[in-house]
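Q: Entry one of two.
A:
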Amino acid sequence: MTIRDDHVVAGDLATQAGEKLLEIRKELGFSEPAVLRSEGDRRSHVFLTESLARLRPSDVILSEEATREERLDPRRQTAERVWIIDPLDGTREFAEDGRADWAVHVALWERGSLVAGAVALPAQGRTLTTAAPPPLRQAPDKRIRIAVSRTRPPEFVQRLAYLVGADLVPIGSAGAKISAVLTGEVEAYVHAGGQYEWDSAAPVAVAQAAGAYASRIDGSPLTYNKVDPSLPDILVSLPELAPTLLAGIRDQRR
């Protein structure tokens, strides 16, 4: 087993899960969004967990769709390798016809760090991976763009945008938002409305591999595989913008 193998496993599984989700969309249609969301979550979870159990039988899995007992499995705290997955990030967008801002997350945490990851954006026809992270663009001379939640953008981010001269861009899933930073659609993503490790592990792994900045909004490190998987806030940006954004966040939260 090599680290390169893990990059490939993450990318292949995220892509294949995404393909299955596109098939589920076609099979079920959009007339019953709740059914579509439920089936998408369930089938993608089963595919990813069964695949990882086959390919990496000694590793532990932390999934958004796991039961409470599975999340509290004590083996996770002593394991050297834990796969952190979100089988369907952005279920709301997945169940809306025409929306492409949803994702599949597959990340590997090993001995304290994220070492591999992939974010599949199935409706966009691409997967971003740590095997070949996208090259970052430089920050523009004009106003920067900050990705925010479609449904619950933090109020302080609106004040931050005014302070630093930024435009807010609503995007669906966390994976789609962080991917937008990496592909040049926005320059930053700021969130403080509550999230969990599976919401950010895979996109943060890819972002860090690409050289982007990623931290909590107070500048402290993002840490994974904790007993409590809550990870409520995050900043991901082009590296040259991080000092300005962190300073602005501090000012707005005093």
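Q: Entry two of two.
A:
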Amino acid sequence: MGRGDGLDKKKVLMDDWERKLAAVKIRKEDMNRLIMNFLVTEGYVEAAQTFQQESLTQPGIDLAAITDRMEIRKAVQSGNVEEAIERVNDLNPEILEENHQLSFHLQQQRLIELIRQGQTEEALEFAQEYLAPHGEENEAFLEELERTMALLAFEDARSSPVADLMDISQRQKTASELNAAILSSQCQEKEPRLPTLLKLLLWAQSQLDSKLQYPRMVDLVAGRLSDPTDVNQMC
């Protein structure tokens, strides 16, 4: 904001702000459940086990199931998509049977891995057998398939207009989609609550910025607040 804009706003001093924050009572049990939710959803099994013992907070799920989910996710991230499909079918075959989009994206990732390995003939046969039928039934799948097959048209796919498909982020995207589906099948939340609350905090601050000068949260990791009496904060 400009220096002049800040002078026109009501100012809330640090002492008043901290007093208001201290008046907000949050139960320790709620904080513990929030932490456990993050550990379980993100797959930190050992940390969840330790936290369960120390806080007596129940994870709400068999922690062994988290290990299975993380192994499946790791397989996709490593490019071992076939292994991931086998593992998820062992875990719960209905996950892929009922989610056609996820099933397509996993097969699409298998195709990308074949192209990455330079197995052109195998890639063409695989696309014809496993992906073309999906494209015939769904126009969106057909567009994705055509875009993936375009990788074969370039000698160096990594410098092509569709190079993003060869990036590690594409594996991460597929792995995250599969991870969310597994969580949903286990009646777990697809995303941890903590990042959502942090996004809500940032949104609330953006709403206050136009109305007040106040101690803003400027460091989420350290929990550090700005001082509204510091003229540099008004720039």
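A: Comment on entry two: The CA atoms of residues 149 and 156 lie 13 Å apart. The two ends are 6 Å apart (CA to CA).
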